[in-house]
Structures are given as C-alpha cells and as structure tokens.
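Customer escalation, tier 2.

The customer says the design service returned an amino acid string that "doesn't look like it belongs to this structure." They asked us to rerun it and document both sides in this ticket. The original structure tokens are below, unchanged.
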C-alpha cells in the first residue's frame, strides 16, 4: 500500500513488518503440498520458505523491547517454532526419506486436531 501511495512513506517499516509476519504465519501453517500462497506450500529443504525461515531466525534476533533491551517472549517462541520446523523437515528428509512437511500438522492441541480431523472427514464432530 505504501508503494501504491495509499499509505504515507512513514508506514513503510510497519508494512514490511506485517508482510514478513504474514509470510511467517503462512510458512508455519502449511496444510497442502501446493497453495495459492507461495509461502504456504509444504516445507521442503529446497522450498522458498525454507530459506525465508532461516533468514527470519536472524531477523527475529533484532527485535527486542527497547524499554528493557530484552527479547520478547513471543519472539523467542517464534524462534523455537521456526527452529523446530527446520530441524524436523531436515530429520524427516535425512532419516526417513520424507520429502516435505505440512507445518500445520505437528500441533500440540489434541482437541483441535480431533475436531479438525472430524471436519475433514465430514463428521459432525460429536464424540
């Protein structure tokens, strides 16, 4: 929107920040091999988002709370999630010959996974 003139040039940094986090959310939430959003494709060792996630780890280290000069807990959590996804896709490829990872699948929310599975099967979600 800044490039189109719809927002003032002062909004450029905010627009770049939002764009980066949009790509991060998509990269960590892939659920199909291919998607209409390039950063939401399945994660592979050679995918666009693999290099993007590696780069984002360094970028996230530059974000901190200026009042305390500390890394924010949510930023630390993003770093852990990204590192885990990158290590997992590498391990799956190297040790199990699995070529891609749908990053939305390794989820700790068992209840959410139960209902998501029921919805995908067309079930009413009743236990």
């Amino acid at each position: 929107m800044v490039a189109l003139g719809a927002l003032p040039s002062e909004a450029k940094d905010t627009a770049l920040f939002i764009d980066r986090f949009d790509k991060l959310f998509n990269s960590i939430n892939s659920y199909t091999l291919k998607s209409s959003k390039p950063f939401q494709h399945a994660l592979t060792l050679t995918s666009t988002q693999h290099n993007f996630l590696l780069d984002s780890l360094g970028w996230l280290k530059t974000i901190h709370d200026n009042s305390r000069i500390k890394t924010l807990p949510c930023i630390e959590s993003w770093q852990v999630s990204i590192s885990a996804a990158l290590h997992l896709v590498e391990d799956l490829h190297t040790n199990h010959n699995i070529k891609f990872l749908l990053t939305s699948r390794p989820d700790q929310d068992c209840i959410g996974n139960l209902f998501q599975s029921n919805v995908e099967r067309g079930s009413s979600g009743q236990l």
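Tier 2 assessment: The sequence is consistent with the input. Residues 123-127 have pLDDT under 50 and may be disordered. Helices lie at 12-27, 48-60, 73-96, 110-121. Sent an explanation to the customer and offered a walkthrough call.
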